[in-house]
Amino acid sequence: MSKIIAVTMGDPAGISPEIIIKALAEGDLNGAPAVVVGCAATLRRILALNITPQVELRVLDSVKEAHFAPGILNVIDEPLADPEALKPGVVQKQAGDLAWRCVKRATELALAGEVQAIATAPLNKEALHAAGHLYPGHTELLAHLTHTKDYAMVLYTDKLKVIHVTTHIALRKFLDTLNRSRIETVIGMADTFLRRVGFEKPRIAVAGVNPHAGENGLFGDEEITTVAPAVKAMQAQGIEVFGPCPPDTVFLQCQEGQYDIVVAMYHDQGHIPLKLLGFYDGVNITAGLPFIRTSADHGTAFDIAWTGKAKSESMAISIKLAMQLA
Predict the structure, then answer these.
(1) What total of structural domains would you count in the chain?
(2) Is the pLDDT higher at 6 or at 214?
(3) Of the candidates 270, 315, 75, the residue with the CA atom closest to the CA atom of residue 169
(4) Cα separation of 229 and 295, whole Å?
(5) Label partner for 84 (CA 20 to 30 A): which of 73, 197, 230, 278?
(6) Is residue 209 part of a domain?
(7) Does residue 222 form part of some domain?
(8) Is residue 281 part of a domain?
(9) How many CB atoms lie within 10 A of CB 70?
(10) Can you tell me the distance from the alpha carbon of 48 to that of 71, in angstroms, rounded to the nearest whole number?
């Protein structure tokens, strides 16, 4: 039986509908076993602009009705409250609500076993909040919907992989809440995740918090009091983990093959090197969920929404990776 992937629309006012159509209508994903969860009326509006390849929309009542063939886009319809009122490139309450409903519907399908993985298109956090769904992003939303306690964001490319101790949190709050238990949990998730995707003995590097990993306490003591004890505890469990490593060099070392993944302490520490080195082919994965979830590693790009300029490579790679990991 083929593994079926649910692709959530994300924010319909951004580039998400466009890149979904492009990803599933071009190359080897044309006819792939993927079902789009989103607003069919919005997809028709995009097709009418002639900025994407033309496909036949098949609106389904259930995943079982899907027919996978080149030129066909299977859609589980989650309609906007007012599809014709949707304005491209503008933050809107109804768009944020749709993004939330698409993720919720796809999660229900995954938990029921009707799809085997989810690939999410970008949503807009401001629109999400305007609709009353107060989540920092996909990662936290999916954790809530699946009642998952321990989870982490993974950014994934062929040469560089990063997993985060914290993500959408103020830097000051990160420093106040950093703790050994969370670092140990993320190291364990990194090991489990890499083994799941084919690494027999993962090599995990843990970045320090401060410049030069604290320089033996000269620039801060978080490495001494918190990070190093966590690394030693996980080494004692047989995990091949190293650190704390200087943050300004460890990502290059990982890209060059010295390590298989880097544990980043906070959002920008991990996102900046990954997006610099792999902006168009990076994939966002949520580790710890009961199913595989991948995502394009970029935002909604309201400035170029519905213009045909959006690149679909990251969306396509996220769908392919979801299929591979499923």
Answers:
(1) 2
(2) 6
(3) 270
(4) 33
(5) 73
(6) yes
(7) yes
(8) no
(9) 10
(10) 16
Nearest Cα neighbor of 256 from 325, 180, 203 is 203
| CATH number for 68 | 3.40.718.10
DSSP string computed for 140-157 = HHHHHHTT-SS-EEEEE-
What is the C-alpha R_g of the chain? 20
Q: How many CA atoms lie within 13 A of 142 on its CB side?
A: 31
Phi, psi angle pair for 142, to nearest 5°: -65, -40
**Hey, what are 323's tokens?**
């299929």
pTM for the full predicted model? 0.84
Tens-digit pLDDT profile for residues 46-104: 999 999 999 999 999 999 999 999 999 999 999 999 999 999 999 999 999 999 999 99
What's the domain range around 76? 5-148+289-325
Kindly state whether residues 137 and 19 are assigned to the same domain.
yes
What's the average model confidence in pLDDT over 214-218? 92
Kindly state whether residues 166 and 129 are assigned to the same domain. no
Task: Determine, yes or no, domain membership for 278.
Answer: no
**174 and 234 housed in the same domain:** yes
pLDDT tens figures, 128-179: 999 999 998 898 999 999 999 999 999 999 899 999 999 889 999 999 999 9
The pLDDT confidence band at residue 1, using thresholds 50, 70 and 90, is very low
Enumerate the β-bridge partners of residue 58.
74
Please indicate, yes or no, whether residues 61 and 175 belong to a single structural domain of this protein.
Answer: no
